[in-house]
Automatic annotation (TrEMBL):
Residues 19-52 form the RNase H type-1 domain. This is RNase H type-1 domain-containing protein. Pfam families: RVT_3. InterPro entries: RNaseH-like_sf, RNaseH_domain, RNaseH_sf. SUPFAM superfamilies: Ribonuclease H-like. GO terms for molecular function: nucleic acid binding; RNA-DNA hybrid ribonuclease activity.
Length: 66
């Protein structure tokens, strides 16, 4: 639903700065493709999300990005 909102321009109606910025980038003369990735399939995003809500119990280093 968020991807549809960005692509269709409905984000311009709302006062969400990040979504509006993504919509502006999407409308540039670039080849842009959005794809939803589940948090469990993206170890870096999962780690960052846990850190943001205080559930990270250890330091995690990724010598090679997953």
């Amino acid at each position: 639903m968020l991807i549809d909102t960005i692509c269709n321009g409905f984000a311009l109606i709302r006062n969400i700065a990040e979504v509006r910025l993504i919509h502006e980038w999407y409308n540039k003369n670039w080849k842009v493709k959005f794809r939803h990735v589940l948090r469990g399939s993206n170890k870096v995003a999962d780690c960052l999300a846990k850190a943001a809500i205080g559930k990270l119990k250890q330091v995690v280093l990724f010598p090679i990005p997953p």
